[in-house]
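Give me structure tokens for this 493-residue protein.
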Amino acid sequence: MKAWESIINTAMLGTDKPTPAIADLPEDVAVIANAIDAAATLDKEERYLQKAAVIYNYRQSGFVPFQKNDLPVNKASEEIKSYCTPEAVRVLNTILDEENDQLLQLWLNQCSKVGCLLMPDVLPAVLEKAQKDVSLRSVVIECSGNRGAWLSKMNPVWNWFSILPDEELWQTGSPAQRAEVLKRLRQNEPVKALEWLQQTWEQENAAGKLELLKALKINSNADDLPWLESLLNEKGQKVKDEALALLKSIPGSSVIKQYEELLLQSVTLKKEKALLGLTTKTSVHVKLPAVVDEGIYKSGIEKLSGPKSTVTDENYVIYQLISSVPPAFWEKQFEATPVQVVEYFEKYAQEMVPALANAVAKFGQKSWVPFFVGQRMFYPDFVEMLSGREQEKYLLKALSNDAQNAIAHAVRINDEWGTEFAVAALLKMANWPYEYNRGFFTRYIRLIPVGALNHIENITSQQANLQPTWDKTRNHLINLLSLKQQTLKAFNA
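Here you go.
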């Protein structure tokens, strides 16, 4: 309204400036404005304030909306899939009230699995959740149907329903989108992903190069080596560091070969005759050669163990080298099978056994893991390398020796815990209710199986003063597990 603009200008510049002209006012307001102007007892300031009050209230009363009767009908296409059951809807509403994204993910996964759709009235709330949590988007799209796709066009922040081909996203997407494209491509077509990155490399800025290079961690292989080796001449130090880190994870790279050459001289298996030649004495000799190539230390191997370390500098260097070469190297070096290699280290170089375990985890040698799980030491990186019953047995063993460390690594796995381990872990958690509180169980409810409900009432803290706090946390956990149980039941899982 032009008259209101005039009111604002007068308020800022003074009443000496022109007040709203009668011609600029709506007909009903103009009648009142004329009456105000006709009042001889009012000065110009009072006339201004009274007109401003009338115009302000007129604006607050609203406007007649623009009318256009020939607009095309815009509605969602008919759905092909069926909507979820009333029971599932009820559980979903409770989960949304709890604001628990873990349970929402579970609900959506179950809904997608049975081929059902979200009810229309809850779509906006779920779309808002997915707007904030990118990990929910793909399953939300599956569960939203045609109405979700239609509704996404009504709000620009929901435009992620339109999925562009990877080729187009790679060319036109945001840095985050391009990085995700490269990661997806590395899963199934690592060579093609490398080619794409090489084609655009010179056009990328330093930050972009670093993020895209990280995608090569997925399915890294010998085909990557020539190009990664060339990146050691890059100008950006962070890019060079990332390329070096990748080279140190791929067997056959120049840096790993350099480590292996030094280990050939530093760790040797010696078999000597003893007792008049009737028996054989075996030993592992661990010692650096007199001269060590300084390039070893430039690649990230630390020369000194530190002032508080009980390990000698020499052994510390060898420990790092053993951690950095593929375990298969020792099969050739010792002319032995994997189980024999582990036995040799255990008997003759016990202090280097953890280094060998580090190498097993770093290079993903799952076949070597069983040779370590019987040891007293807990190797957390092995948790994700084991599966099924073996994983649970390993975690249970670690739980009895170092509960908090075992739990800290157990929450990193993707699969739901077994009931036996979950109950054993909860028995430990009850003694630290301030650390394992409501927030902890809200974040990790996906890991705790519904089967724990049959045991949780009997889980108490060993310290009486902590029991009231644990009781509150336990009630919260029971509520979360009940919602989890109801979700599975609603979809007949």
